[in-house]
Specification:
5-stranded parallel β-sheet, 2 domains, alpha/beta, Rossmann fold
Length: 419
């Protein structure tokens, strides 16, 4: 018995048999629910129009346990965004995909795990349009050759990524050949989102995602999985200064920050192993522990602002787990290379509080906390399911730090506490 809820997306160009196929499937699978079709949105702003369609998926799919069939889905909505980019020179791809990711992250939406792509020859599409246009009210643009070709280009890329997991339908194959319960057609969330990004052509946009968190939470292991999806790894920079001299420590932290921030300037798809977050957190922690006071913090922030001009960053993923779990991982660490693990544990409480603050204050899920107390594959799925391609100025992050510096300093004045 298949226990996972099945969400079937039926997508393709107009007049390729999607609605007829859905009706036939419902006869064969009466236990499935057919989602309502999209309500027509009359909105001139391209992003807002697609966003309002996407929001309808939250109610079309819903949170029930019933297996569901969608007559068009996020795939068609994304294909339209791709057409806007290619033909109309209107690029809403990253913004629209980010809105979809946010909807998923909030638990309001769900990814289809079965996909049926309907296709038909162009002449048949036009013939069907001429016959049914008064009944269906299909806009002429949707049967223009250029529009049809762009949609097929998008769907071909999407299908190429998922290969045999896609169910193809073109009138010549009957509904009896489609077994929706067959797990060979099951599509995982990561694979679906990866295929969507590929088809939108946003997977080749220069970006820099950083994986942060304290020692032993799995940052480097996670980066290795990202490399399998076309990301270059910017290796962790290890520079620890145990000096008690304030001036010497400040100079070290600035040099460390400059070296660390260089990794964000790459013109590639980068995943950064331990980004600038650790430098910021450790600077506050040390200032509090060594009683340097706010004058040190003011000097530190002034300096890092000077070297952060014109640098844009993508999301920061902060991996965390219960303190006891981290200590257990340390005790079983056969490499014995985590020389500064004690200071990392002392950092723990302050970093958790700082992470919560940044999660609240930064826009567009630019800072995301990920529970790392699970398999590394599950952690990767959580990260990838939150990943979008919007960016922000690094200075925006530092300005938030500066505005809340007294609160953050207090976070690191107490080395105990818990999540």
């Amino acid at each position: 018995m298949h226990m996972t809820r099945i969400i079937v997306a039926i997508d393709g160009n107009v007049n390729t048999g999607k609605t007829s196929l859905l009706k036939n499937i419902m006869k064969r699978y009466p236990e499935f629910c057919a989602a309502d079709e999209y309500e027509i949105i009359n909105e001139e702003n391209p992003f807002k129009r697609q966003f309002l369609y996407m929001i309808q998926d939250e109610s079309r799919i819903g949170n029930s346990e019933n297996n569901t069939i969608l007559d068009r889905s996020i795939i068609s909505l994304s294909a339209y965004a791709f057409w806007l980019f290619k033909i109309q020179n209107i690029d809403i791809r990253s913004e629209f995909h980010s809105a979809y990711i946010n909807s998923l992250a909030k638990g309001k939406n769900k990814v289809p795990n079965r996909v049926i792509i309907c296709s038909q020859k162009y002449d048949a599409i036009v013939s069907s349009y001429e016959t049914n246009r008064l009944i269906k009210g299909t806009a002429p643009v949707y049967v223009e050759r250029e529009y049809i070709d762009i949609q097929e280009e998008f769907l071909a890329t999407f299908q190429e990524e998922l290969k045999d997991k896609i169910i193809e339908y073109n009138y010549s194959n009957t509904v009896n050949k489609i077994d929706l319960y067959d797990e060979k057609y099951e599509i995982g969330k990561v694979d679906f989102l990866h295929a969507l990004q590929k088809a939108l052509r946003i997977d080749n946009i220069n970006c820099n995602f950083s994986i942060d968190g304290m020692s032993a939470v799995g940052k480097s292991s996670l980066c290795k999985i990202y490399s399998l999806y076309g990301f270059y790894i910017a290796d962790e920079i290890r520079k620890v200064n145990c000096s008690t001299d304030e001036e010497s420590f400040l100079k070290h932290q600035i040099e460390y920050f400059i070296e660390s921030v260089q990794r964000y300037k790459s013109k590639k798809r980068i995943v950064i192993d331990n980004g600038i977050f650790e430098n910021i957190a450790y600077s506050f922690y040390s200032a509090a522990k060594k009683n340097y006071g706010m004058s040190f913090i003011d000097s530190y922030i002034k300096k890092i602002k000077e070297v952060s001009q014109d640098i844009r960053i993508n999301q920061i993923f902060f991996l965390y787990m219960e303190r006891e779990k981290i200590e257990q991982r340390k005790s079983s660490d056969i490499s014995k290379t985590r020389q500064h693990f004690k200071s990392n544990i002392e950092l723990w409480s302050g970093e958790i509080k700082l992470s919560r603050l940044l999660t609240q204050l930064l826009p567009n899920q630019m800072f995301v906390m990920i529970n790392a107390d699970k398999s590394i594959e599950e952690v990767f799925a959580d990260c990838y399911g939150r990943m979008h391609y919007l960016q922000m100025e690094l200075l925006e992050l530092i300005n938030v730090i500066e505005k809340n510096k007294k609160i953050i300093y207090q976070f690191f004045s107490d080395y105990g506490g818990g999540i």
